[in-house]
Amino acid sequence: MFKKYMQIPLFTKLLAALVLGAAAGFAFGKDILVLKPLGTIFLNLLKMAALPLIVFNLIAGISSLDDPKMFGRVGLKIMIYYALTTVVAILVGLGAGYLFQPGAGFVLQGSYDKAIQTVPSLGSTILGLIPGNIVDALAKGRFDQIVVFSAIIGVAVLFLKPEDKAKAHETFQVMSNLFNKVIGGIMVYAPIGVFSLMGCTAGTYGAQLGGFLAKYLGASYAAILIHLCLYLVLLLVFAQMGPVTFLRGASNLIVTGLSTSSSLACVPVNLDCADKLGAPRSISSFTISLGSQINKDGNGMMLAITFLFAAQAVNAPLSTAMLVRAIILSLILTTGAGGVPGGGIVTIAIVIDAFGLPLEVAGIVSGIFALIDMGYTTMNCLGDLVGTIIVSKSEGKLGVADTIE
User: Fold this and answer.
1) Cβ atoms within 10 Å of 114's Cβ, excluding its own
2) pLDDT at res. 115
3) What is the torsional sign of CA 274, 279, 285, 288?
4) pLDDT of amino acid 4
5) What is the per-residue pLDDT for 105?
6) How many alpha carbons lie under 13 Å from residue 87 in its C-beta half-sphere?
7) Distance (Å, rounded) from C-alpha 259 to C-alpha 377?
8) 71-129: per-residue pLDDT in tens?
9) Spans of the chain below 70 pLDDT
10) What are the backbone dihedrals phi and psi of residue 123, each rounded to the nearest 5 degrees, phi first?
């Protein structure tokens, strides 16, 4: 039976857990809270694996680059593209969050008066991202400082001697693979955790949950459609490629992204789509592989919307400095987020915890994560493909698919 269970796609299991948990919660009301420890175990497992997962994925992704002197134009162009589109994606997510107000009127049980109680200035916000003592940051669980430190380490690896760089990258890659396996193991338990979390949420909040689902899903897919339109505009302007040409060429990638919810699983399909759209392997093998690790536009939108939901739910004060910090932290975390199914739940927990917001929000979102993860994963992968086409065109190497329809 366990073998058959493992053969069921994660999306199917999480969706079933979501529906059954909601039904049980509505049926039993607050009596279902007896199952709450099962959901707490799931959240604690995610928190346990979060720090090493982000650290090793981030360092391994950055250290996979070629020597900085050989990186050249392609590396610079694709990195600028990834950074700019991810920032835009986060801003789109914030805009959708403000428009749909998913947390408005959603009254969380418990007191969260200390959430974002101290609002720092913009200068102190930026300085606060730099760890003065990495051991202290590790002890206190300062994920924002830890990921900045990890990014610095990843860049430093690029300047090592070739043989040392290879050894260092191999070490970090092995550890990255190890903790991706850990997350994979946690995802085996995920349906039980999601059933518990969704059941307890439905039992606690009842009909209030329906309005939240509608607004949260509405904000998520509105952001996805807006960002997809942005991709199509960028292709038309910078690669002279029409929407029909691109969507037809990327159709296999879209289906794979929706069905697997895994950026890494989509890499071979993405490379094949790049071939069909005229991008040479000399460029796509680098940009798509790199993008699967560090380019996460979909995750950026997800973090922004979830951050606003949590802040709105507890009426936490938000300033420009706080939003800037959220944007910077989301940008860093999307760079370090592994391309495994369900890995976005980990980064949600990190952002929520970094601002002192209720981690219960991560539990609520994890209950509907299957409904949004497939859309965000597809956006992650399409972002890699669009960047590859634009860079190929700028290098004069885009092939026969360079037509407007």
Assistant:
1) 11
2) 44
3) negative
4) 83
5) 74
6) 9
7) 10
8) 567 778 988 999 899 999 999 999 999 999 888 877 665 544 444 444 444 466 567 77
9) 10-11, 47, 50, 54, 58, 61-62, 65-72, 107-126, 141, 143-144, 147, 205-210, 259-262, 264-265, 293, 333, 335-344, 367, 370, 400-405
10) -60, -45
The pair of structure tokens assigned to 157 is: 């690896």
Note the pLDDT tens digit of each residue in 279-327. Answer: 987 788 778 877 876 788 988 898 899 888 888 888 877 777 778 878 8
Residue by residue, what is the 3-state secondary structure of the chain?
CHHHHHHCCHHHHHHHHHHHHHHHHHHHHHHHHHHHHHHHHHHHHHHHHHHHHHHHHHHHHHHCCCCHHHHHHHHHHHHHHHHHHHHHHHHHHHHHHHHHCCCCCCCCCCCCCCCCCCCCCHHHHHHCCCCCCHHHHHHHCCHHHHHHHHHHHHHHHCCCCHHHHHHHHHHHHHHHHHHHHHHHHHHHHHHHHHHHHHHHHHHHHCCHHHHHHHHHHHHHHHHHHHHHHHHHHHHHHHCCCCHHHHHHHCHHHHHHHHHHCCCCCCHHHHHHHHHHCCCCHHHHHHHHHHHHHHCCHHHHHHHHHHHHHHHHHCCCCCCHHHHHHHHHHHHHHHHHCCCCCCCHHHHHHHHHHHCCCCCHHHHHHHHCHHHHHHHHHHHHHHHHHHHHHHHHHHCCCCCCCCCCC
Count of other CB atoms within 10 angstroms of residue 234:
20
Q: How far is 14 from 365, CA to CA, in rounded Å?
A: 12
For the record, the structure tokens of 88 come out as 């835009």
- Domains along the chain with CATH numbers: 8-394 (1.10.3860.10)
Task: Write the burial class of residue 218 (CB in 10 Å: 0-12 exposed, 13-18 middle, 19+ buried).
Answer: middle
